Structure formats: structure tokens, C-alpha cells
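Appendix B. Extra example for self-study. Work through it before the problem class; the solution is given directly after the inputs so you can check yourself.
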Amino acid sequence: MGGDHGPSVVIPAVAKALATLPASIRVLLHGDEATLAAQIDRCCGLAERVDVRHADRVIGMDEKPAQALRRGKGTSMWNAVEALRAGKATAALSAGNTGALMAISKLILRMSADLERPALVASLPTSRGITTFLDVGANVDCDAERLIEFAVMGEAFHRAAHGVPHPTIGLLNVGSEEMKGHEEVREAHRLLREGGLDLNYKGFVEGDDLTAGVVDVVVTDGFTGNVALKAMEGAARFVTNELKAALTSNLTGALGAALARSSLRRFRDRLSPPPAAPLLGLNGMVLKCHGGAGETDYAHAILVAVELARSNFAGEIETNIRRLPTAMAEQGLRPAEGGV
Amino acid sequence: MGGDHGPSVVIPAVAKALATLPASIRVLLHGDEATLAAQIDRCCGLAERVDVRHADRVIGMDEKPAQALRRGKGTSMWNAVEALRAGKATAALSAGNTGALMAISKLILRMSADLERPALVASLPTSRGITTFLDVGANVDCDAERLIEFAVMGEAFHRAAHGVPHPTIGLLNVGSEEMKGHEEVREAHRLLREGGLDLNYKGFVEGDDLTAGVVDVVVTDGFTGNVALKAMEGAARFVTNELKAALTSNLTGALGAALARSSLRRFRDRLSPPPAAPLLGLNGMVLKCHGGAGETDYAHAILVAVELARSNFAGEIETNIRRLPTAMAEQGLRPAEGGV
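Solution. C-alpha cells for the complete assembly:
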């Protein structure tokens, strides 16, 4: 029911994704039964591959996380996460309110092992492959210990999702010199350097290293990560639009563009940001789809969820974080209070 | 003497810039006399349009601001700012250590009126014109009052530099809903809404609004701003490189690209980020050039400095900030302690 477009985009996207997936894969749809049924009827053969679970209510896009927790029970989002906990689903996907999704997931699924807070992870295309970037919006305020947790989770995710045995890690900062950046960033840097965490930590990286692919995993707080991710998406879109305008501004340019069409299409496909970001650190796989996702993006998000469900990233994270409490204790640190 | 390349780039850049400027414009060069003279001799006719001011020492790229203040006297950076204070120059340009440049400028020139800290401002090309973006790296930690000062300075700068009578202002955040973001951001939002500052404030904007040109001025702290700016530069570079690779991957693509060459060149020129960022809020115009700037960029930076020196942005800022203390006092706020 979530996102900017709701079932009118989600249902056709489900049909599109299922068409490319084996028949053994089924989709549970949580939401208003009548609305969903009307959309399902429009997609030939879809009714046989989905199960509708009626929910009276939805979480609004601007509800605060605390509010979502209080009145969330029985909403479509709550039921989707609950189905995951009950073992009726392998992954849950939502294009709804990110803060609410995080809070509800944390409450119902609980954090894996000793982790404190989930993180939202993005996969960026770079000139050398894929950069795993987190947190991109789940935690606005992060202390040094949260950044360490993100490093541990991101490293495990990158290994599981991309098969890299020892992913390299960088900490996002405004400069490579030791004295720069927030207190939290400098403290996290020290811990990653000296904390005996057995991570392949490479030090500070800067904003332009994200797309240069300097390291496999880039760690930052959810405020900076969200702004940087959206700024990059905006810049890529701007550049692509400007290019289009430049190429169609005169006849020779337009002719050139027509000749180069298939190259330009490959170029555009390669740049498309992955439309689904998993929430790391939970006992269960929850993915957040971009609220503005259209049919193609949402279908792509479903395929990403299926692919990740087949990987062992949750197991990798658990193995990694077993080492974390000991390493933290050696540095005289305790887990943070509070959370969502 | 600063930046990644020093005089071997700066001197030819000065020659290049002066070639397009009226003879009445002269350049004061601060640094090691012998090194500078050797480079000047290579540029035909340059000696007549520059004056060399010998400095024994330079500020290192990784010196902390406090250290730069203690031992800065007599360095090339110090002398350049001092020449500005003494009225021997109209603008000072450096590709050196940003933190040191800010600290030295603040000490020698002092802040204009009641402002607390200078801000580094970037001008971003967007689909609708130019977006003024600050702070992009001068202040890593910013409270709500610093963000308000940035809004006041950025608005005045945008009006003076681009002739827009009432520039619109947005505050960078992770979402448009009122409850999102840091405490500092939400407090600044409230003050901009209710503080009686007579600014054309439009509310929260997100990372992708930077290149969409949704507002004229986007305000954020120096950590987020620096990361976002570099992330956008990296994304634009990545997209352009991928495009090049896609177009040259086969013969038809290459033929198309050859036909579209002049369109592609205009496209590239339009995207080039302005190579010099002014430090706003000081009694004098100091500009920071990107450390990695090559000859063309540095020459462009000199032209930007000349152009800004002709505008009245310092006067605009002063007019704006005269209203600030009253508005702040009405909200029960005092200026911040400390600073650099």
C-alpha cells in the first residue's frame, strides 16, 4: 500500500517480476483486499501466484516511528513484517515510511545478536564494480560505536552479496588528514584502526571516492549517507538530462545520438541505482524500496529481494558480530542506550 | 605556493587569466621569490603584470588551524591575507590548506558585523541556473544559529552574484516531513520559519534537490556540505567517463560520438564545477581554489575572483546581518561561543 503510487504500481510490478521467476516463488500481498483484488484482476494469471492478506489500515508516509509503533498493529506494514517473523515469508519489501518500517521491524524481528540499530544499505555502481554504502537513512544521529557496527554489517553484507572474501572498508570524512571531521568519526577511525576487529580497514575516504570505487564498503551516519546518496542520484540525473538536451540541440548532434543509441542505452542501464535497500542487522530480511519507484523499479526491487534471500548475508553478519562485544569491551566501550 | 601542484600550475594560470583581463588588473604573488621568478620567466610578458612578495615559509597541507595560527606569520598564505587587510589587494586566492586559510583570514580580517564563523560557498550548475550551496567545508560542527547565519550570508551572496532580488532558501535534510533530521536542523527550520528574518525560506530540501534547482540557496553544515559536494562531483565524473566508455565501445557508437562532438563539448563545459569558493562573512574577499586544480581551473578561479570583487556581496551580507541580532534576541538566542 506504500510509496507514492501504491497498488497501481506495486501489483503490475509483482506480475512483471514473477514472470521472470520460477513458479515456486509466491508473493504475499498485505493491504486492502478490495483495492488489491481490483488490480490483481487486471494482470492475467497473477491471482494464482499471489496470496492476499487483508489489512484494514496503513502507516501514513509522515507518521513518526513512535506513533507507528503505537498504532501499527494490523496495518499492512506491520503484517508484512509479522509474516516474516512467523516464517511465512523469506523477505519483506515495502515502499512506505522508512522510519516506521525500521521501528516496526526492530520491534517484531529484534536485532541480530548484540547489534543496537539497523542500517539501510545502498549499492552504488562504480567504475570498479559495486560500492556498499551505509547508513543511507535509518539513523540520523550516530556515535562512534554505531559507525563500527555499520562497518561490521556492511563488510559481511558485501562479502555475502558480492562474493568478495575480504572487502575493504573506508570511513566517510571531509578530508584524509587524521585531525579532520566530527569527534564521532575520529573516534570510530581510532577503533577501526586499533580495535582488533579483523576488518580490512583502509582509513578515511571522501565524497568523490564513493563512485571511484576506492573501497568496497563506505561507512557513514544516516544523515550524511542519505544526503550524499540523493545528491549523487540528482547529479547523475542532471548530467544525463543535460546530455540529452545537448545531443538534440542540433541536427548533427541528434544524428550522432541516433547512431550511438544502443551504447547510450547500455550506459543508462549501468547507471540505474538499485531500487531496493536492505535493512541490515535484523533477524529477518526487510528491504526498503524507493517511495517514488515506478513499475520497472519496483519489479527490479522484487528481484533484488529474491536474490538476497538466496545469499547468506545474515549468517555472515552474525559471524562478524560475535567478535564485536569482545573487541568493544577491550576498548572500554558499552553498547549504546536507547535506539528507535 | 599551495595546492597539489604549487607555482608550476599557479604561474601559467595567472598568465592565462591576465591575458583576458584589462591591463589595470595586477596580481600580487606571495611565496618563495626564486621559485616564483623561475616560473614567471617562462611566461612571456608576465613579469610586467605581477608583483612578487617574498615569503620564507608556507603553511603545510596537513597543519591544524591552531598550529597555522601560531606559526603562520610570514608564510605566503598569511601575507596574502594581510595584503588584503592592508588594502593592497581586493581579493585573496589560495589553493592551500582550507582550515588554515579560514583561521588566518578570521584572525587577520575579522568577521563582518556580528557573524561568528565564515562559510565556504559553492555554486552548482542546475537545470534552472545556479544553486548557491553552503557550508561546503569550513565548519564541521554547526548548531542552529550557525545554519541561520549561513542562510543570511548565502542569500546575500546569491543576490549580489546573480542579481536575483529575493533568492529562495532551503535547508538540507533527509526528508521533507517536519520531524526528520538532527535537532540542529529542526531548530534552524523553526527559526527560519518564525524568526522574523525576512528571508524567502521554502523549508526542507533533500540531496537531489541540489541539482534540480528547487531553491536558489541550500544551507547545511560543513561536514554534510563537503561530502555532498564531492559526492556530486564524483557522480558527474563517473557518468561522463561511463558515457565515454559506452560511446567508444563499438564503431557505430564512436561514429555517433564523433558527429556529436561539439554538442558533447558544450555539455562538458556546462557541467564543470566553478573552481573557486569564496569564504563568506569576513571583512574582505578570500577565495579557496580546489587543491587539485590544474592550469585551466586555476585561471578560471582568478576570473571568478575578479568578477566577485566587482559585485557588492560583502555589502549585501552586512545589510542582511544587521537584522540578525534583533531577530535572534527575539528568539532568546545568543551568538555561539568559540569558533575556529
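Self-check: The two ends of chain B are 23 Å apart (CA to CA). If your reasoning did not lead you there, revisit section 3.
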